[in-house]
Write a structure and sequence with these properties.
117 residues, mainly beta, 7-stranded mixed sheet, 4-stranded antiparallel sheet, 11 strands
Length: 117
C-alpha cells in the first residue's frame, strides 16, 4: 500500500518561507513523478509544481520564481520550498505520486498553509 505523508505546513506572515516535505512509503519512490497541488476554500484543486523521476520540473505561473520543488530519492521524499509567501497562497497543500503509464495515482492527506497579511 503506497502512503504519502506531508509535513511542514503552518502559519506564516506574508513574505515568509515554509518548506513542505512528503515522505512516500510502500513502493519504489524513484519510479514516480511527484507533484504538489493545493486547494483553497471554495476553489478547485490546482497544480503547484511537479518533478519527474528524471528530475525535470514544471511550475504553475503563479509560483514561478518563488517556489522550488526537489526530490531526494535516497530519502523517498519530495520537497516544496516556498519563499515570498502571499496571503493568496493560503490553502491545503497535497502531495501526489503518479506513474501515468500504469494508471497509478496516489495522494497524501494534505498539510495546511496559512499566510497572514
Amino acid at each position: 500500500q503506497v502512503q504519502l505523508v506531508e509535513s511542514g505546513g503552518g502559519l506564516v506572515q506574508a513574505g515568509g518561507s515554509l518548506r513542505l516535505s512528503c515522505v512516500v512509503s510502500g513502493s519504489t519512490f524513484s519510479l514516480y513523478a511527484m507533484g504538489w497541488y493545493r486547494q483553497a476554500p471554495g476553489k478547485q484543486r490546482e497544480l503547484v509544481a511537479t518533478i519527474a523521476n528524471s528530475g525535470s520540473t514544471n511550475y504553475a505561473d503563479f509560483v514561478k520564481g518563488r517556489f522550488t520543488i526537489s526530490r531526494d530519492n535516497a530519502k523517498n521524499t519530495v520537497y516544496l520550498q516556498m519563499n515570498s509567501l502571499k496571503p493568496e497562497d493560503t490553502a491545503v497543500y497535497y502531495c501526489n505520486a503518479a506513474r501515468r503509464f500504469y494508471a497509478l495515482n496516489y495522494w497524501g492527506f494534505g498539510t495546511q498553509v496559512t499566510v497572514s497579511s
